[in-house]
Amino acid sequence: MQINKIYKPDHFDQYTIIPLAIFRQKGISMAASGLYAWLFSHDSNHEITMTFIGGHFKDGKDAINSRVKELETLGFLVRESVRENGKFAGYNFRMCVPTTIAEKTTTGKTAAEKTAAGNPQQSNNIYNNIYNNNIQDNIQDHVQTFVQDNVQYHNKTNNIPQSVKSALDHFIALFPEKYQPTTDAQKLKWAQCLERVERIDGYDLREVYKMTKKLCEDQFWSGNFLSILKLRNKDKNGILWVDRFMGMEKSGKPQAYKMIPNIIKFYKYNDPAGKPMIGAITKNAELDDFALVYKLGTTEYENLKKYLDAKG
Predict the structure, then answer these.
(1) Which architecture characterizes domain 5-97 according to CATH?
(2) 242 with 209: CB under 8 angstroms?
(3) Largest CA distance in the chain
């Protein structure tokens, strides 16, 4: 059974052009758009694997993995688990078009806009009902609610230590702009998270900052650690991510031992051309070098390589 394969649903075979959604997606790289268009150029029964992609383009494995991850993040590729004999064996990726983008590309309007346009009488009725009520009372209610919300917001802000407030902007700057908090309420949530990491979890924010910076620069975690709020969420084993991340920093072993589930061992081998590679054996599957680079990212892959070289 093959894993790390990208497959195209057969109903896409009828297309001789590329879905417009990929060209209407803001913030996507040209490389990811080109890769998606290239994937669409093949029949659904064509074997498209990571190795096949690497053999076609001059880009290296890291660049290809990065573009595949970008398409997955944006919803143009959907990751699906592969099981063999009831056990997890790896992943494949299904090509698709994100629904909201596809709808807007086809009609020029979102679903909400279409609903409003298709029922204008209802909108007018709502407006008339509001107008016919005492509009001054409504305004007064809104003003009162606004004042109350702001009082509550400032009360919560006053409970944040100055050390956390000073550190907040530095933490925010580590993340891509599109994932950064923009409103006061969002920034407050980030500040509250850092305050609890310091007060409840007992971590020095300077050490947490170093750890966060390292994760944000890593190829794997930069796509999976998109908000400081993750630190106080729990993984599937009920462990706080901040404990898990900080534990990785203190452990003598590289993070790869935590990032690959059910790992039994990593081992070194050479490809047919004699180039050094790394493989992994888990309880459910065996991963080759290409799969490890994709799962770990460049930084952690290199850390693992150095660790294994040091062991001899």
Answers:
(1) Orthogonal Bundle (1.10)
(2) no
(3) 82
